[in-house]
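re: ur question from the group chat, yeah i did fold both. here u go
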Amino acid sequence: MLYFAYGSNLHHFQMRRRCKDSKFLKKINLKNFRLTFRSKYRAADIEPKKNSIVPGGLFEISKSDEKKLDVYEDYPILYKKYYFLYYGKKVMTYTMVKKTPFKFPTERYLNVVKRGYKDCNLDKKYLKVALMPSW
């Protein structure tokens, strides 16, 4: 199945360790969404926003990978699954259940996300915008 990563799972080494069968396919943009950080975990989340994009990594994952991600993402308590079509193919990602206010991520978590942006060759400007919420 296809999985869209936009936070810490962009980090190739971490993703490979967590999901043994995962294969990074390419970078893609999720349109009409924006990246943010929230919850007591200060983790990445996406929310609908017109004319905005969330860059991320498209991965091929197995059923057992999906089960591991479900555990990691605390599905269905913290995150729920969200599906979208990418060139006619169904893609799964996670989005937070409770849309709490913005919380700046921890340095450790942010460094993992930054490394992931580098691994997937994503444009860091979207990450910078997400870290400067308009109050």
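okk and heres the other one u asked abt
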Amino acid sequence: MRRPQLSPALRAAYARTDYEAGGIATRIGRRSADLDVLLRRHRVRHAGFVTAWNPFSRPMPRGWNERMLGKLREAARGRVLGEGWGRGRGWAERHLVIAGDPRWIAHLARRFRQHALVMVAPGQPARIVLGLRPMVTSAPP
């Protein structure tokens, strides 16, 4: 399946979304002290908010979405730090916060046909990775 292009409206929706897991929330461009604590407690340099719901932003039935999230959980191989919700205007999707190398996290998101993911690192603002092209990190994974 070919990846559809992201519209400006969809890009804006990602930026307006609240990303939460285990009671810890963040938004694109913002740093979360609570999220920093979680990452440092697990000695994690990088993590990503990744979903398996609604591939390429096409709504799917809740049961299908839940099954795919279960498959993502299995694919994450025990690196799930938390589970939560991405909530925007009039919609919500469940996601996982997965620890690991950003390239591996992006691979998981591509595998589950996602347009984007949200990357976090201690002391840094959350950033959205659109299109999931290969990423260069400023610090070794």
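fwiw on the second one: The chain has a mean pLDDT of 88. The two ends are 30 Å apart (CA to CA). idk if thats what u expected
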